[in-house]
Amino acid sequence: MYLKGTRLVEIGKFKEADSLLTLAMCSYKNENIYYNRGISRLYNADTSGFCSDMDIAANKYFDSGARQLFNMECCYKVDTVFYDKKYLNTDRSNYKYLEEIQYVKKSGDTIGTIHQRNKKLPVETIDFGCEKNLVGMRLLTTDIIATYQMISSTKYYFKTTIKPRIEKAKEYKVMKKEIESYFGKKYESLKALNSVEKISVYFELRVTAMGEIIGGKCIGIFPEISIYSFEREIEKDIQDVLKRYPKLKPAKYMGENVNSITYDLIEF
Questions:
Q1: All residues at 6 or more sequence positions from 131 whose CB lies less than 8 Å from its CB, including other chains
Q2: What is the pLDDT of residue 15?
Q3: Which pLDDT band, with edges at 50, 70 and 90, does 233 fall under?
Q4: Where are the domains of the chain?
Q5: H-helix or E-strand containing 148?
């Protein structure tokens, strides 16, 4: 199905290609299928779909061609800054670190990606299909050592050299056990309505350079189920969770404590 969809892109049948490649993703995923579907969506005037696919191909699978197209079509500006081994500004001929700053059109986000020249970091990619079955697992390499998002003129790193860590593990475990028990009782009907045995609620935490939790939000539920009228209530409960979260050891970049965005989940 992937090969047929790709062939449709090549001969200019972009609407049919989009449909076929979307179906193919039930059992097959990699950078090429997202790239090809993105191209078909661009020619179908679906710029949002194009940018979403190129974002995945570039940032999950580290496809350089997808990154170039994302920068060209989905950003109104991209700045590049070069640093030497002492992290001082330099030129292209003498750099060790490269910082790419994307100003994204649709979201208005400012995203920074920092590359280290000749660095090869292993990253495992895992893909699931339409029936939540595992369809792919690969070990890729990247030269990206850090990524951040600008929020209210402040950098928050969601990838860096040292991630934020739990400082009081025992206190954290007690909190998680109590919260998962609470969610399990409160949202038991949600499992019954969707005929699932387990639900995972993923959420984001915004952490200061001092390790303080200053915000966050629910970012998704697995499996992808209908949550009916529970959306606001789940978000409210996540906000209550964030207030109970123990202080963290902050993330570090280049040896310095930094603001960061990290993730957790509640399973019930």
A1: 26
A2: 96
A3: very high
A4: 2-151, 165-267
A5: strand 144-151
Residue 6 exposed, middle or buried by CB count within 10 Å (0-12, 13-18, 19+)? buried
**Sequential DSSP letters for 70-117:** HHHHHEEEEEEEEE-TTS-B--GGG-SEEEEEEEETTT--EEEEEEET
The answer to whether residues 132 and 200 touch, using CB atoms and an 8 Å cutoff, is: no
CA dihedral 126, 130, 133, 136 (to 10 degrees): -30
pLDDT at 118: 96
Instruction: Determine the distance from the C-alpha atom of residue 37 to the mean position of all C-alpha atoms in its chain, rounded to a whole number.
Output: 19
Per-residue pLDDT of 17-41, as tens digits, reads 999 999 999 999 999 999 999 999 9
Q: Which residues fall within 8 angstroms of residue 125, CB to CB, at 6 or more apart?
A: 60, 61, 136, 137, 138, 139, 140
Q: Would strands 134-142 and 200-207 be described as parallel, antiparallel, or unpaired?
A: unpaired
Q: Which residues, including other chains, have CB under 8 Å from residue 237's CB and lie 6 or more apart?
A: 182, 183, 186
Bridge partners (DSSP) listed for residue 159: 147
Decide: 142 and 159 in contact? Cβ < 8 Å. Answer: no
pTM of the model: 0.85
Tokens of residue 15, six digits: 């609407």
Burial of 43 (0-12, 13-18, 19+ CB in 10 A): middle
Q: Are 168 and 247 in contact (CB under 8 A)?
A: yes
Residue with tokens 């590049």: 80
Distance (Å) of CA 241 to CA 109, 138, 178, 186, 205: 26, 34, 10, 14, 10
Cis status, amide bond into 223, omega within 30 of 0: yes
**Mean pLDDT value of segment 4-27:** 96
Q: Which amino acid is at 66?
A: A
Among 69, 151, 146, smallest CA distance to 108 is for: 151
